[in-house]
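User: Teach me something about this protein's shape.
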Amino acid sequence: MRRFVSVLVALLFCAFAGAQEVNDRPDSLRLRYVVSGTVLDGETGRKLESVHVSLPDRHYATVTNADGAFSIKSDAPIYEVVFSYVGYRTLRRKVDRSVLNVRLIPESIQLNEASIITGNPYEIVLSAISQIPDNYSDHPELLECFYRETLQKRSRYTYISEAVSRIYKTGYGEDVYRDRTALEKSRVLLSQRRRDTLSVKVQGGPTQAVTFDVVKNREFLFDQEELSCYAFEMGMPTYIGDRLQFVIHFHPATVKDWALYNGTFYIDRERLSFTRIEMALDVSDPGKAARMMVVRKPLTLRLTPKELSIVISYRFQEGRSRMEYFRSTMRFNCDWKRRLIATSYTAVNELVVTDLREPVEQIPRAEMFRTIDILSDKAAEFSDPDFWKDYNIIEPTESLEHAIGRLRKQR
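Assistant: First, the predicted structure itself:
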């Protein structure tokens, strides 16, 4: 019997109500120095999303949004910014002004055929799992994170919720269920239109990044029983940052009572550490997929899953790897029975680790955000335009900024 089931959301038919709880703490940071800009593909000019943006010798970090835009803040002057992305050369750029627009150059692979295909992919995955105690932190860490979840009905945003959170992570040799998350600042924006009464409530909010940290939560994918459900094959190697990666694809090799995943592991060829993991739930059996995605829904609502994809990446720093980014995307169609037209929805949940906190203190149980908690039930809207000024965040895209403005006007 499977020991872990990835339930994600509850679908409720209800009228949106105002926020119930305020989670606001006095600002503890004064990030006065800011560098903003965009990141493009150096050959095509394409905007690059989810590029990791960091400051050397400091822990401040963020990622670019879907428009390729970023903004990174610091409590000290910023002299250099580092950009890292899958398949591109790492770029270190000197800063001489507050706007920094850069182009990343794709990294070419110079390997002979023998070195490309050498190695049994399953054995490489097992070796990487065995190296987890050496490659990841063996002591507790306190991560500062920015988290955002959104819901779109067709192409229009109907729900936006954001939070600055803390994640207390025990060492990677300890149980993932001892990790804790707490909110530091949060807000929610909800559509007041009567037709927008389908509420997608994401259980766990920022704790999803803890649950889906599959390197630590090994019962999810790296359990021997789970691994036996998959077939593995080597892909073309690539670079992440300046590090050459094994690329190993996996897909279901058997039929189970639950839906399995298709995906890709990026494993550092020298350290044998997991650098990035991409997973997409097999939705070929809608019934199985829906059971993995939905906690509850109205009996008369019919849901057809279209996608559940997950990306989690890790950053090597100071001799250890740690989680740096998490994103889940869920697409589904909903229609009430006997209706001919289904409505499409897209729910996106995204978290980036923006800083490491010192001293490392365990989050008190009274402040803990539980896996069954729902961020929209705990967040309150703040109309202050400088709401996030003392924190690093994922900059909103132009479309999201417009949506935030529209949802505020409805209130």
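Now, about its shape. The first helix runs from residue 113 to 117. The longest strand covers residues 301-317. If you'd like, I can walk through any region in more detail.
User: That's plenty for now, thanks!
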